[in-house]
Design a protein that fits this description.
Length: about 260
C-alpha cells in the first residue's frame, strides 16, 4: 500500500487533484471512510485525498463517519491534514470567495462521536481521553498557510468557526445569535474532525472558503447558490494547495505529535 504524509479532506470539485492516483478501499475498526481514498503525488509530495461527503456528495454532515475517516488516513501514514470546507460568513468584512484560516471553534453539534476513547473504543485500556483543544489548529501548518496563501487569494488569517449540526441551515435568530457571540463563520463539518485528528496526533489545519452570508444579511442562504460559489472557488483553492504543499516541512516540530501525553486517565 502506497503511503502518504499529507492528507487532504475535501469535497466537490477536487477529485482530479492528483495525477494518476492509486485508489484504496479501506476499512477501520469504526467501519469504512466516506469513500475510497486516492493517493498520489502533488508538488513532489505523497498526498492522500478523501472526499468528506463521498464522491456523490451523498453523506450529510451528521452522518459522516469522522472516526473512520481519520483512522483510514492514519493507516495510510498521514501525519498532517489540510481540511477544506465551505462556510457562511457572519461578518461584513468576510466576503464570499474569501478564505478564512480559522484558529478557534465553538461546537454546537449534538449527535456526533467525538472521541476514539469511548465504550465502543478500539483501545482495550478503556481510558478516558481529555484531549487539549485550547489551540485546535496546528500552529506549524497554520504558519505555512498564512505565509503562502496571500499569494493566491484574499485571506483572513484567524477566525472562530461555529459548528452547527446541520444539514439544515441556521434560522435568522441563530445566525444573529452567533454574530452577537462574535463568531466569524458558520459551518457543519469541523467538529469532531479536528478533535479526532488531535487524538490521533495528526496535525490539522482548516481552509474555509466562504460561499455566502448565512441568513443574517440580504437574503437567506440556499444550497443552489452555495454550490455555484463553491464551484467558482475550486480553482482558487487548487492554486492555494499548489503553493502550500511544497512549503510544508518534512519534519514536524509542533506539539501535535505528542497530543496524548497527559491526556489519558
Amino acid at each position: 500500500m502506497t503511503k502518504a504524509d499529507i492528507g487532504i479532506i475535501g469535497g466537490s470539485g477536487f477529485y482530479d487533484l492528483l495525477g494518476k492516483p492509486k485508489c484504496y478501499s479501506l476499512e477501520t475498526f469504526y467501519g469504512c471512510p466516506s469513500d475510497d481514498i486516492e493517493v498520489g503525488k502533488l508538488c513532489g509530495r505523497k498526498v492522500a485525498f478523501l472526499p468528506r461527503h463521498g464522491k456523490l456528495h451523498n453523506i450529510n454532515p451528521s452522518e459522516v463517519n469522522y472516526r473512520a475517516n481519520i483512522l483510514a488516513l492514519e493507516q495510510l501514514g498521514v501525519t498532517r491534514i489540510l481540511a477544506l470546507s465551505t462556510v457562511g460568513s457572519l461578518k461584513t468584512n468576510i466576503k464570499p470567495s474569501d478564505i478564512v484560516l480559522i484558529d478557534q471553534f465553538v461546537d454546537r453539534t449534538t449527535q456526533r462521536k467525538q472521541t476514539f476513547h469511548s465504550q465502543d473504543s478500539l483501545f482495550t485500556t478503556k481510558e478516558v481521553c481529555h484531549i487539549s483543544m485550547a489551540e485546535p489548529m496546528c500552529k506549524e501548518l497554520r504558519n505555512v498557510l498564512i505565509k503562502t496563501s496571500h499569494k493566491v487569494v484574499n485571506i483572513h488569517d484567524k477566525g472562530t468557526y461555529v459548528c452547527i449540526e446541520g444539514p439544515r441551515f441556521s434560522t435568522k435568530a441563530e445566525s444573529n445569535l452567533f454574530r452577537a457571540w462574535g463568531m466569524d463563520v458558520v459551518g457543519m463539518t469541523l467538529v469532531p474532525e479536528c478533535v479526532l485528528a488531535r487524538e490521533a496526533e495528526i496535525c490539522y489545519a482548516s481552509i474555509c472558503t466562504v460561499t455566502d452570508y448565512d441568513c443574517w444579511k440580504d437574503k437567506p442562504v440556499n444550497a443552489k447558490e452555495v454550490r455555484t460559489v463553491m464551484e467558482r472557488n475550486v480553482e482558487t483553492v487548487k492554486k492555494l494547495l499548489l503553493e502550500v504543499i511544497p512549503m510544508i516541512p518534512e519534519k514536524r516540530t509542533c506539539q501535535c505529535k505528542n497530543a496524548l501525553k497527559g491526556a489519558l486517565i
